[in-house]
Amino acid sequence: MNTNSSLKKNLMYMFVCTIGVQIVNLIIIIYISRVLSVDVVGLVNLSQAIILYFTLLTLFGFQTLGSKEVVKSVEKDEIVYSVISIRMIIALLSIVVIAIIAMLMTKGESFSTILLLYSLTLIPLCFNLDWFFTGIYEMKHNGVFNVIKVIIPLCIIVAFLKSDSDVYVIPIAFLIGLIMAGCYHIYKFKSKGFSFSKRDRMKRKLLLTMALPFVMTSILSTINGNVDTIMVGELLNEHELGIYSNSYKLIFFLISMIAVLFNVTYPKLTKLKGQELRSFFGLLTRVVIMFAIPISIGGFIFSKEILVLLFGKKYIEGSMTLKILMIYFMVLFIRELCAYSLNAWGKERIYLKIIGISAIANIIINYIAITNIGIEGAALSTLFCEIMTFVLMALSVRENVNLSYLKETIKILPAICLLTAILIVFKIAEINIILVIPISILVYFGVLYKSGYLNTLRTFLK
Q1: What's the pTM value of the predicted model, to 2 decimals?
Q2: Does residue 221 contact residue 56 with C-beta atoms inside 8 Å?
Q3: Has residue 215 been placed in a domain?
Q4: How far apart are CA 91 and CA 208, in angstroms?
Q5: C-alpha separations of 248 from 30, 40, 229, 293, 320 in Å
Q6: Which segments cross the bilayer (predicted)?
Q7: For 225-280, how does the pLDDT look when each residue is reduced to its tens digit (9 = 90+)?
Q8: Whole domain around residue 303: which residue ranges?
């Protein structure tokens, strides 16, 4: 199978799996937001934001490194045992640290209990073997793992979560989902003749050392993505936290969608050189611009309607926050192309340095903005730091390829202007958002088709 055919197959497979899982996640968020009060939703989201750092610490960068080692190693059993044992030690230590954090934070007994229950999910997380199945080119098992991980919590939450007093159902549901998904991975691992019996202490030490840069990168990237939620939780009240964090949940949903595009194109970015690389980078730029701008414009104009449609009128005051975050999403979408490219071209140190600078700036600016402006300040500081990160990464990427963001934007400007005009008219006429979305998509892509620009997408998928 040639590279382009493989790219298309992986894109479609990962797209379907990711879309399905993320839609289920969104349904869970919507259900929780409509059943619970804004304040309690804020506490749940804060605990999830904190747990995310310990999740990344437990995974310890093996999602990337582990796959590479499995591909080139004969003793795959040793790698799996080493990774799981490293993760288990980190998970147990993390639970102790989380318990201390729960005692020190002044968010009440309910929050402490939610956080502690979420910490237990780190143990079954150790048995997430998606990196192993990626390494042996059987990613279908990862799709099943992710489906189990979200479907079981959805069923439990819908069945048992009826009011604020049932809030503990949420972390318990996710814990059960991860346990069942982990059991599936273990079963498939053993059914292929592998075992957990092969142990190599030196291999474990080597993997631990090799994984450090990966986990550092993940944590610094996450600081840029969700430190605002944690700081809003610490500096403002639970109600404001609930309003802000739910707006960001929508952005996170969109970010999860674009990850599909970059994950499947990453291998090709690592292999191509010279003119082939420049041509492919230009093609990828056109695809990014084609989707980033219209999604952001639509979300900006109809921010209020989107929040009401999904979460209810009690979240309407987050409209301005979502508008700012939609601009942030557009910048992030464009910036991610530079980020993946830097890693693909062996410039991990430059990437790590940039996100390190951005993470420090994010914490400082968020503190100043949140204490003076509130949740809109958190959104503005996140946007500002993302723009700064994009500029720094773009300057580094220009050493390898020519950036054509402005040129590609000008090419689709007629379609963007028409779409914006239609959206404004629909907004003034108070047309239902459920009708606005499909009509806008048809108009936008219809104009791109007539102009021939849509051929870019066809070329990309070939």
Answers
A1: 0.87
A2: no
A3: no
A4: 14
A5: 13, 16, 8, 18, 12
A6: 12-34, 46-67, 79-105, 111-131, 143-161, 167-187, 207-227, 247-266, 287-312, 324-343, 350-369, 375-397, 409-426, 432-449
A7: 889 999 999 999 999 999 999 999 999 899 888 877 776 676 677 777 777 777 88
A8: 227-462
